[in-house]
Amino acid sequence: MKFLGHWGLFSIILLFGCLTYGRPVHADTDASLAHVQAKGTLVMGTSPNYPPYEFQINKHGKSQIVGMDIEIGKQIAKDLGVKLVVKKLSFDSLLPALTTGKVDIILSGMSPTPARRKSVNFTNIYYTEGESILLNKTEHNKYPTKSAFNGQKVAAETGTLQYNLIKQQMPNAKLIGMSSAANLILALKTHKVAAVVKGTASATAYAKNDPNLVAVNGHFKTSSAQAGNAIALPKGAQSLTAAINQSLAKIKHQHLIQRQYLKTAGKYLKVNTADTSMWHYRHYFLRGLEYTLLIALIGIIGGSILGLCLALLRFNRLLPLRWFATAYVEFVRGTPLMVQIMFVYFGIGMLVDVSALTAGIIAIVLNSAAYLSEIIRGGIQAVDVGQSEAAASLGLSKNANMRYVVLPQAVKIIWPALGNQFINLIKDTSMVSIIGITELIYQVGIVQADTYRGVAPIGIAMIIYFIICWLLTRLLHYYEQHLNYE
């Protein structure tokens, strides 16, 4: 069972003020079902890196989201008479996506905790499981009981039920929190931690597909409020909740989860583990590289143009324009890029519906512009004032002086700094994975979850980033030499 991490909780707090001014999500609570049926689609938010609930498979070179929750979503959409649309996001972004109308429901192994119930609706429980401890098989006999982990490092996803269970029921163990399932498994297999606590279905899936791991019953005690998974809906969406509960009741009555959905998920898991070579997943890395380069290229071009405009505004005689440029730069540099990306997608996205890719590009451009503007401004100030005085004595206007005299010399001065910023921007594109853009880092997480291999995908990503940055460095160095010869 997956829980909302710190970033998701922080983003909800950040967007709380925006919700007051944004368009209401299902303001007419009785119209929630009618709204879904009128548009003909049920948009399901999920984080596809949690087998067997939801994960991606590489089938004939094409990516496909599958799993138990996907099968449940299909049945619900069929019963409602609409088409299921699956929107993939990081788990931390699911609740903000629901509260801002990006998705209609969250079906992603989520537990209906009291804290969550305050902000969203939940359906009835559709699946209940226990909690298991995942171990390296060679150390299976070393830890017969929970007390055997005293003084040992035991890990779980931060902010989850499992994290709290370790804290409460294994008080003498050293609790380690991590942000993703892939990182947990990697830490376990490299012996950074002694054990990982996960939901039984997920732990069993990992153990069945990795001969070096074993899942054992954790014998944890959980309350009825904590146990089980449910579907999250917008607060007040009563009619849609009731309709989905009817579908869930039919699924339970026919025992479809045990008889069909879990078996289907198991078959899909075998598709992934049939060939776990990185070459088999080359299309994932190429797709991630494509988005990384696209975002970086637009970020460099857009950030440079906007950064130049901001730098010039800092020299403007009109104080309001100078204040605006200064305030913009200080604000952007004073807030994390990840928060800016989430604000553009969820906050501004409430007023204007923008895709995740568009929101990510906008955030990257706005962020890089602030840093580039300071680099450009420093270069302009570094140009000898005598150059401008000489230009004025020859009758050049201020605009012509800036265009033909100052800026060309400033570019030569700041070129190395610009190059460093461009390289940093390429690496910063990894941040957009938080809103589900399938750039390189996002694809690494998917490959890790699908193949149960932790190190190899990271190694491939490092090589790809190095090649990109090395080629860009060579290109920038070439033009730097060209500028010096002029």
From TrEMBL:
NCBIfam families: HEQRo_perm_3TM
Membrane topology recorded in Swiss-Prot or TrEMBL: Multi-pass membrane protein
Residues covered by the ABC transmembrane type-1 domain: 289-473
Designated name of the protein: ABC transporter permease subunit
Main subcellular localisation: membrane
One GO BP annotation of this record: amino acid transport
Subcellular location: Cell membrane
Transmembrane intervals: 291-313, 354-372, 455-473
Membership in a protein family: Belongs to the binding-protein-dependent transport system permease family. HisMQ subfamily.
One MF term in the entry's GO annotations: transmembrane transporter activity
Pfam families xref list: BPD_transp_1, SBP_bac_3
